[in-house]
TrEMBL record, chain A:
PANTHER family: ABC TRANSPORTER PERMEASE PROTEIN (PTHR30193), INNER MEMBRANE ABC TRANSPORTER PERMEASE PROTEIN YCJO (PTHR30193:SF37)
Keywords attached to this entry: Cell membrane, Membrane, Transmembrane, Transmembrane helix, Transport
Domain ABC transmembrane type-1: 65-277
UniProt GO BP: transmembrane transport
Alphabetical list of InterPro entries matching this protein: ABC_transporter_permease, MetI-like, MetI-like_sf
Coiled-coil ranges per UniProt: none
Cell compartments where the protein resides: Cell membrane
Family the UniProt entry places it in: Belongs to the binding-protein-dependent transport system permease family.
Protein name: Sugar ABC transporter permease
Protein's UniProt keywords contain Transport: yes
From TrEMBL, chain B:
Family: Belongs to the binding-protein-dependent transport system permease family.
Name of the protein in its database record: sn-glycerol-3-phosphate transport system permease protein UgpE
Pfam family, one: BPD_transp_1
Subunit structure comment from the entry: The complex is composed of two ATP-binding proteins (UgpC), two transmembrane proteins (UgpA and UgpE) and a solute-binding protein (UgpB).
Species: Aliirhizobium smilacinae
Topology term for the membrane: Multi-pass membrane protein
Domain ABC transmembrane type-1: 78-267
Family matches, as SUPFAM superfamilies: MetI-like
Task performed by this protein: Part of the ABC transporter complex UgpBAEC involved in sn-glycerol-3-phosphate (G3P) import. Probably responsible for the translocation of the substrate across the membrane.
Gene that this polypeptide is encoded by: ugpE
GO cellular component annotations of the record: plasma membrane
Gene3D superfamilies assigned: MetI-like
From TrEMBL, chain C:
KW Nucleotide-binding (keyword) present: yes
Organism in which the protein naturally occurs: Aliirhizobium smilacinae
Swiss-Prot/TrEMBL keywords: ATP-binding, Nucleotide-binding, Transport
Protein family per UniProt: Belongs to the ABC transporter superfamily.
Protein name according to UniProt: sn-glycerol-3-phosphate ABC transporter ATP-binding protein UgpC
Subcellular location: Cell inner membrane
Gene name for this UniProt entry: ugpC
Single GO MF annotation: ATP hydrolysis activity
Matching InterPro entries: AAA+_ATPase, ABC_transporter-like_ATP-bd, ABC_transpr_MalK-like, ABC_transpr_MalK/UgpC-like, Mo/tungstate-bd_C_term_dom, NA-bd_OB-fold, OB_MalK-like, P-loop_NTPase
Amino acid sequence: MLSSRLTPFLFLAPALIGLVVFRLAPIGIAVAGSMTGTSLMGDLSFVGLENFAYLFTDAEFWSSLQVTLLFNLIINPLQLAVAFALALLVFQQGRAIWFYRLLLVLPMAVSTGLSAVLFGLFLDGNLGPFNGFLEWIGIGAQAFHRNQDQALGTLIGIATWKGAGYWMLFLLAGLYSIPSSVQEAALIDGATPWQRFRLVTLPLMRKPMAFVLVADTAINFLFFAPVYILTSGGPSGSTSVLMYQAYLSAFTFSDLGRSLAISTILLMIILIIVALELRLLRSPEDHAA
Amino acid sequence: MTETIARNPLAVALRYGALSILAFAVVCPLAWLALASLRPQAEIFQPVSEFGWRTFVPSRLTLDNYRALMSGDFPLALRNSSIVAVTTVVFGLVVNALAGFAFAAFDFRGKNLLFLLVIVSFMMPFEAIVMPLYVLISGLGWTNSYKALIIPEVANGMIIFLFRQFFASIPKDFYEAARVDGASWLYIWAFIAMPLSWPTIATSSLMLFLSQWDSFFWPVVAASDPDYAVVQVAIARNINFEQNDWGGLFASTNLAILIGMIPFLLMQRFYVRSLISGGIK
Amino acid sequence: MATMSVRGLRKSFGSTEILKGVSLDVADEEFVALVGPSGCGKSTLLRLIAGLEEASSGEISIAGRPVTRLAPKQRDVAMVFQNYALYPHLTVRANMGFSLKLRGESKAGIDTKVNQAAEILGLSPLLDRYPGQLSGGQRQRVATGRAIVRDPALFLFDEPLSNLDAKLRVQMRTEIKALHIRLRSTMVYVTHDQIEAMTMADRIVVMQSGKIEQVGSPLDLYDRPINAFVAGFLGSPAMNFLEGRIDGGALVTLDGTRLSMPGHLGGYQHGQAVLWGIRPENLALAAEGLSARVEVVEPTGPDTQLLLRIAGQPIIALLRQRMKVRPGELIHVMPEPGMTHLFDKESGRRL
């Protein structure tokens, strides 16, 4: 029957057209666009790899790449560690624990943009309480995102405030998937709490931890809103991540080719990460029971 | 030393102590903002030297800041965000549930490949394609319009995935019995499958709503015109530009956070479960 | 190897009391099975002995040493779990040697013991596999092997065969029993399967609602159950019960039928409400006796199982012969002398 063979595609069409046009096609546009240049008149012309060649000689690009890598090198392990610590702390029964869990995941309901605004106010010397607190305990007021040496750290702190509870949920689900009898077997086998953690819990958490690390990295390579809202890439380029460079190139310097070249580089990184993620989820660990 | 089975009370105290400190660190900024937004204008500035309980607790609570909001450009931003978010929820539910149903109920050529596309589309964070998507949208002449904000966000891989998971959990007999009775597939989807799937509908609505309510990068790029500024963009602009209405900024930020947080709190159990099923399963 | 004893053990979870004062002595080298319906507290008792739960009150000692407040690692017990609880990330070898490694034994020492245990259980070719690559029966063996390697004072088994299919269960039953004889170790074995308990144990502990109903050798319990619960729990098909009142030498059933049972009911109080019990295999065809209507005939090959109706109540008879009877026929059966049981209706106690 013709109709029944067409039916699935009629059901799929609206969503698939949306995904193909607004998710898949932009990847092609990025790659194609990265090989075009725009003249002052606004004409498009094919320039091959010129945009990339120019990027690789551009000190600003290298410094931005360095900032992005540094940011990711710190934030991803940090968020994983904090999220794992939180998951271990709330991995318990009881009403009180349920309440703590709720409090810890609250920030995931606050958008990244609003988190940035919130901390912009909270850390402000005149408007927020935090510097007053630092004065009060004797550390003294800090400039945070307005200081070249503190800005990246401040953004990392804000992102961790927002993200740790979210990633905690995945690790908590991982902890729950370890059969309690396996922990009990270790108890009977004579393992101390530390041995149980290191020899049983940790190896069995490898997969959820790898998932969190990979998924978190994908998000943090594209970190943008707090940079735009709080630092505009500054002070002195200390927070100018690649995504922000891509934005600036297009909207401040009207250099769409450069913007798309950076986007293409980011996309390649992200697609590699997604491939890793897929492999991780697809291949059932051969020795999992 | 002999170890006993009884829980070590010191360990319990340490656990709850650590949790309390962490929970305080997480909640403190939110609580501070909520209280600060109820402060009289005169108390907004908090000199660093005057740290104390007054830093957190206003001398009197007032809704002045919220009242003042209503006269500025914030109502427009609220309106824009609401139109964008609600439209996306309505169309997103239909479009993605249809696709999820197709993946669950039918066998067809290319199914696995198409499903892979769905999965990749939600594993790849949206921000990755914002710049080229802007090129596409401006090529279509859609910049600075509701279209630009809504249409690219309607098809959502995560929601398709959730609906597929749910529809696949309904025994096929259910659908086939209705087919034998002469129902069309569209009828089965609308009157049998959808009514059963209300938990998925509820979480998906929340996810679609939050995806729009929280989005910032795309609106900044695609609809930078003040007439189309959504809440996130309007607030972010206000913190950057020199201005006097800090009370208004407090109030609008707090309001925007609450509007995102209340549905989350109401539905967090469903929401968390769906989130994890999308990530790990 | 060692003795184990439990005195006045109680355990509550919140306001529900799971164990209501349990006392039990297990002799050196003895195999004791804890049986009972689910929720009777047998698994809780085992977990208390292992140290996985803490007793609300009462005392536990192993090898004469009080262990009530000690952590599992200090009790010198090994446990085989229902779902095997193998470490999924470790090979069979590492699973079996895990406890020895924690104890700090030398690598050579661990290898010797693991190889030895693997030899006994036929696991030698599987030592480098992961649990996920093993069949259910193999996993069960690894779990047992992990316990053997420890050479513990006491082995604990928590329904170790319940996840296996019927055929494998029978095979593993024999293997564990052989292992007990070979190792001459003390074992406490929880099961809900009364056949497992009957075939494997030196002594059976029947539990119900957090209490021990009766302790004894399998045949003791089978032949002289202390109450109607134990009588009904052990044996398959289960013991038949007829409810009624004693009237001289006869039993008057609920529907008023008068079953005269000469020699069976002498000496009991007239009018007492009782349960009269007879095991299916203790009924024989007779020219006269209890008249029974045949409802279902189930030939099993060597035996024939009949579902009968006597005095309006269903009764199963297991006859060691092939028979030509049809449903609807009227036959007569006679209880084997000395094989009937009488219980007080009210308390269930044996009379």
